[in-house]
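>> received
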Amino acid sequence: MTVTVSSAEFLKAYGRITETALREPVSITSHGRERLMLISAEEYRRLKVNDRQPLYPWELDEEDIASLETAQASPETRRFDHEVE
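>> returned
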């Protein structure tokens, strides 16, 4: 679950809110709009591990190309077939 606080509340209660962010994400709003998310350093590192690096097709090795050629879309993606026909 995400906790939501205003930027003014964040400035007044920095310590309490940063402690909360160690356990769960904190959404910081400004003028009623979500502006920032405060997360723990551990969660940030976990997310960074999952970052994907784009590659050009010519950078793929034979194993990657073979995997792409035999890949199958999951059944729930069939609802988008009309977009590529």
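>> The chain has one domain: 1-71.
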